[in-house]
Request: fold
Amino acid sequence: MRAAHQVLDETPLVFVDPVAVGLLDAASREAILSRRDELQTDRAKHLRSLFVLRSRFAEDELARACSGGVAQYTLLGAGLDTFALRQPPPLRKIRIFEFDWPATQRAKLERLRELALSVPGNVRHVPGNLDDNRWMAALESHGLDMKAPCFFSCLGVSQYLNLEAVDRIFGFVASLPRKSAIVCSFVQLDADLTGEDLAESQASAAIAQEVGEPWLTRFNPAALGARLRDHGYLDVRVLHPEESQRRYFEGRRDGLHAPRFELVLSAAM
Reply:
């Protein structure tokens, strides 16, 4: 979806990610153009809007945190994120930790080798499992400075974890020094959705169930905000669809628009 955004959508792009094009065979320019009709359906644009929005918001918030002195960035469930390969000059001095399931991480690194894409020296890959409580120690053993603030992103992950595991993430970030922060995406409850967002939520949940990765945790935005404040976060901001539409999608003519079924928030200490 991020690659298709680079190839099919109008400029200015919501999220600039040239490395995504060709990162997978199915994400090559030729493959995307061959599937143009499929990728220009309302559903595809809806999903594409979500993926580019949450990545853009996370990197906007990262830049803001780093301008305030944060010098560590941890991607929980890094997947095929490409930030480490296209670091903007002002952020090349920070330390980056990509945390993910070992098999996913191995596949990504093998693909980068196939494409002759070098991993910068300020990047560490940390294998582990967010379902247990050892991942925090794994980050520390790979060099995360527990006495310095860190910015975290956790995109497209929370719905696949049980509530205890999600709370562990929030609690860990909250235990770090002041200025630590997290951007997290979350799926809304069906009761809070209507129309295409309800249909997309139900369809995506069914697909996840089918492939053996059921959605386990969903949130009402206000309840999640209260939960984060209970963890001790001082600044909790849910990016509501009206705001994301104004900030990232206003005036676009390519059909991309702010989604509602999955939202993003930022929470800082």
Observations:
- The chain has a mean pLDDT of 97.
- The domain at 45-268 is CATH 3.40.50.150 (Rossmann fold).
- The chain has one domain: 45-268.
- The chain has ten helices and seven strands.
